Amino acid sequence: MKELPYARQSVSRRDIRAVTRVLKADYLTQGPKVTELESALSEFTGARHSVAMNSATSALHLACLALGVGQGDLVWTSSISFVASANCAKFCGADVDFVDIDERTFNMCTKSLRRKLENARQLRRLPKAVIPVHFGGQPCDMKTIYDLSREFGFKVIEDASHAIGASYLGNKVGACEFSDITVFSFHAVKVITTGEGGAAMTNSSQLADKLRSLRSHGITREPNLMNRVNPPAWYYEQQELGFNYRMTDIQAALGLSQLKRLRVFVESRRKLAQRYSSKFRVLGVRSQEQTAEVLSSWHLYVIRVEADSRDEIFEFLRSHGILVNMHYLPIYRQPYYEQFNYDLGEFPNAEKYYREAITIPLFPAMSTKNQNLVLKLVGKALFRIEP
Ligand SMILES: *Cc1c(COP(=O)(O)O)cnc(C)c1O
């Protein structure tokens, strides 16, 4: 039996040629292809600066550091996300707290955010940064989050790991119109891939310089940024404690080639998602609702079923070769985070969501025949299993 994964990368012959060309050229590690990818990302999104890295996790870490997140600070993120959205603040010694999701969009709920901020102001414990996550590729209500950031004085990092190619109010996600920094992931399951990789977008040249420095050991080779005047040609300076979070030119070449195909990828995903949604409406199955101001990049397609029958439906689909998945267990329920004793009563929508969610297959090369099979088996599972 042929298995149908929930996500699959599309690597073309042209992608492969782009990579092999780099293998025969002068630079393997960060070199001209990384610079070229950064320019292409800036041009695509409209953000002034782009800093490519070896993963979105690294980019989130450096975004926190660049915005001054440190020991004793507080960072908030969405309760339903990949753990890296929270871990990045922990790397900086900060404490993490979570915001409940919106029942319909599965994104950070701005009403809960406001309530939590008002409460935090009374307790004199406001977050230094908030990290909204564009779940499944659907942009969050960024305008409201931005307004709240002005009112309550916090920084905003968009975790757009799912959302390259999505738009919000007519602008591309990554333009940073309503945030300080936006982070993309190029992990193999995401919308475009470099194998492993990520990037941080920003309109601030100070933040971009900081991200570049921290990406490579805190070292600069720019004479005009150095402490020493008239440095000799061999000289470089480590000015702060940084990391090795560089992307390779091999990865950047793949990323550049994939970026050229992004529009087509998103178009295929959107068509498949629309077809799913119209069929599921007939079946009475709930899925992620799209708000008027967004165009999602459809990294994930999540349906919600009755909590009592979710695991059974999940197993039925898996046993028929539909490799469904679950995105995500609320981060505060991960054993590592349980030690911090979050009040689960604060997250009723996240609690309900994770008991009902199933991620079903969606990727650009998925055929109508594949999709029909998924639809047929989901229908069968519901009919067989639901009361
Ligand atoms: C995949 C993902 C990340 C981490 O991306 P990497 O490139 O694998 O480090 C962070 N946040 C979210 C929401 C993700 O889905």
Q: Any overview of this molecule?
A:
- The chain is 41% helix and 15% strand.
- The chain is of the alpha/beta class and 387 residues long.
- It has a 7-stranded mixed β-sheet with strand order 2-10-9-6-5-3-4, with helices on both faces.
- Helix 4 links the parallel strand 3 and strand 4.
- Helix 2 (32-45) runs parallel beside helix 8 and helix 3 (56-66) packs across helix 4.
- Pyridoxal-5'-phosphate (PLP) binds next to helix 3 and helix 4.
Based on the model shown, name its key terms:
387 residues; alpha/beta; 7-stranded mixed beta sheet; 3-stranded antiparallel beta sheet; 13 helices; 17 strands; 41% helix; globular; binds pyridoxal-5'-phosphate
* Largest sheet strand order: 2-10-9-6-5-3-4
* Class by alpha and beta content: alpha/beta
Q: What is the molecular shape?
A: globular
Q: Cofactors and ligands present?
A: pyridoxal-5'-phosphate
| Biggest pleated-sheet summary | 7 strands, mixed
Q: What is the gyration radius calculated from CA atoms?
A: 22 Å
Percent helix: 40-55%
Order of helices and strands: EHHEHEHEHEHEEEEEHEEHHEEEHEHHEH
**Range of strand content:** 5-15%
Mean pLDDT across residues: 96
How many individual helices? 13
Q: Give the termini distance in whole angstroms.
A: 29 Å
Q: Please mark out the parts with pLDDT under 50 across 5 or more consecutive residues, or reply none.
A: none
**Counted beta strands:** 17
